[in-house]
Amino acid sequence: MKKVILGLFTVIFLSIPTLAQEKLMVVYLYEKGSKHYQIVNDKILKDKYLAKRINKSFNFYRIELGTEPSQRFINRYGLENTEGVFFIDPSTGKVLYKLTDFSKPCRCANLINYFSRNLHKKGIDPDRYLEMAEKLGAYQRKVEKDYLF
User: I need a labelling partner for 94 at 20 to 30 A (CA). Which of 26, 41, 76, 120 fits?
Assistant: First the structure.
């Protein structure tokens, strides 16, 4: 009887990871003292709604450029040594999207929404999604004295 119960528990615990959906990996490579770091940290990572989406949908990593972990990441995925946000599918190791232009940080917030809704699996192009979101003015609301993005 104990062996049967132990066997059932083993089957249940082994099947749970296969049922769980693997989270996308998001890596933010930043330079020490960068003005973009403050924007991404204050406007995206500290935003209640976006932080909730990030924690729920992604494995998020913040890595400083010039360190050993950043070099391993750059070598593993064959990227240039620049500041940016990278969305990676961990099952294939493929970079789904890289954002290195921080002139419009709202693009980063819109990409978080895009990937957290799994629109990349539904065949929707991320550039088209960003274009439509910018036309709608997504994440360009006024907060205190400054615009969010």
Answer: 41
In eight-state DSSP terms, residue 145 is: T
Phi/psi at 98 (5° precision): -125, 135
Report the first-to-last Cα separation within the chain, whole angstroms: 62
Instruction: Identify the bridge partners of residue 88 per DSSP, sorted by sequence position.
Output: 25, 95
Residue 69: give the domain boundaries.
23-144
Query: What are 17's two structure tokens?
Result: 């990871």
Vertex 66: Cα angle to 39 and 94 (nearest 5): 75
Locate tokens 């010039």: which residue?
66
pTM for the full predicted model: 0.75
Residue pair 75/41 in contact by the 8 Å Cβ criterion: no
Name the domain count of the chain: 1
